[in-house]
TrEMBL record:
Molecular function per GO: metal ion binding; peptide deformylase activity
Residue sites binding Fe cation per the record: 95, 137, 141
Record protein name field: Peptide deformylase
Record's catalysed reaction(s): N-terminal N-formyl-L-methionyl-[peptide] + H2O = N-terminal L-methionyl-[peptide] + formate
PANTHER family xrefs: PEPTIDE DEFORMYLASE
The keyword Protein biosynthesis is assigned to this record: yes
Active site: 138
Family of the protein in this entry: Belongs to the polypeptide deformylase family.
Enzyme kind, highest EC tier: hydrolase
Function: Removes the formyl group from the N-terminal Met of newly synthesized proteins. Requires at least a dipeptide for an efficient rate of reaction. N-terminal L-methionine is a prerequisite for activity but the enzyme has broad specificity at other positions.
Cofactor dependency: Fe(2+)
Annotated cofactor note: Binds 1 Fe(2+) ion.
EC number: 3.5.1.88
Length: 174
């Protein structure tokens, strides 16, 4: 399966992902193909919509202290739902679909997520800190929300201007 990261302002990123009903080879192939592209692009999380697949599927792999992301640390979530949230944390987020842009975003510090694994087994995960932030960021993708949508009006306008300038520079350097 040949996947590539969809970048802002592609409209597919605003699409709401569909619940997964079939836990079949197609789902397994998608999950298997998402991991290498996430690691290759230095991501810690990736939602299926970011590779143009509007399904409620996401993967996460928080790097270890040495920066490695061993596959045994991979978390695959299908149909995730946050069932408990509390506290507040501000984290500087980036996104593979909005390259080279980082911004402080307010998230819940502690969350509990119910989800299914690739074989439809129901799981529950309690997360805090970076893992909590990453899960919330990826679940937002499944709802058609980008982290830049959480910026204040003034900051969003500044982002749009900066991003257009960066895109022009990117094109002119080719």
């Amino acid at each position: 399966m040949n996947l590539s990261i969809v970048e802002y302002p592609d409209k597919i990123l605003k699409q709401i992902s569909e619940k997964v009903e079939k836990f079949d080879k197609e789902l397994h192939d998608l999950l298997d193909a998402m991991y290498p592209i996430m690691v290759k692009t230095n991501g810690i999380g990736l939602a299926a919509i970011q590779v143009a697949r509007p399904k409620q599927v996401l993967i996460l792999n928080i790097p270890e202290e040495d920066g490695e992301q061993p596959i045994e640390n991979l978390i695959e979530m299908v149909n995730p739902i946050i069932v408990k949230k509390d506290g507040e944390i501000v984290y500087q987020e980036g996104c593979l679909s909005v390259p080279s842009f980082y911004e402080d975003i307010i998230r819940f510090e502690n969350i509990t997520v119910n989800y299914q694994d690739r074989d439809a087994n129901t799981k529950t995960l309690e997360a805090n800190g970076l893992l909590s932030v990453a899960i919330q960021h990826e679940i937002d993708h499944l709802k058609g929300i980008l982290f830049i949508d959480k910026l204040s009006y003034a900051r969003r306008k500044k982002f749009e201007k900066e991003y257009k300038r960066m895109q022009k520079e990117k094109k002119s350097s080719k």
